[in-house]
């Protein structure tokens, strides 16, 4: 699974969730909210503040990323 194929907005929250769970954080509700919020803040900052494009992914992952980016 590559960041270019899956896209930043899909891969980053998934990675943060799995990583934090692996190191011992077990509150799944807060973990899910935190991972999605941090990925959204980073995406918004790169896209709107620094004008740097992050990978959207391919196929259905691209559709998810485009939909989510239109929310910003």
CA gyration radius, whole angstroms: 13 Å
What class, by secondary structure content?
Answer: mainly alpha
Count of helical stretches = 4
Helix/strand order: HHHH
How many domains make up the coordinates?
Answer: 1
> Helix amount, in percent?
over 70%
Largest sheet: none
- How many distinct beta strands? 0
Written overview of the protein:
- With 72 residues, this protein is mostly helical.
- It has one domain (3-70).
- Helices cover 72% and strands 0% of the residues.
- It has helices at 3-6, 8-22, 28-49, 60-70.
- The longest helix has 22 residues, at 28-49.
Overview features:
72 residues, mainly alpha, 0% strand
List the helices and strands and how they pair.
Blueprint: H1 3-6, H2 8-22, H3 28-49, H4 60-70
Helix pairs in contact: 2-3
What's the gist of this structure?
The chain has 72 residues and is mainly α. The chain is 72% helix and 0% strand. The chain has one domain (3-70).
């Amino acid at each position: 699974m590559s960041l270019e194929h899956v896209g930043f907005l899909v891969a980053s929250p998934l990675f943060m969730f799995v990583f934090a769970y692996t190191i011992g954080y077990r509150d799944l509700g807060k973990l899910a909210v935190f991972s999605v919020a941090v990925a959204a803040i980073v995406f918004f900052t790169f896209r709107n503040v620094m004008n740097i494009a992050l990978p959207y992914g391919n196929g259905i992952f691209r559709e998810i990323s485009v939909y989510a980016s239109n929310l910003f």
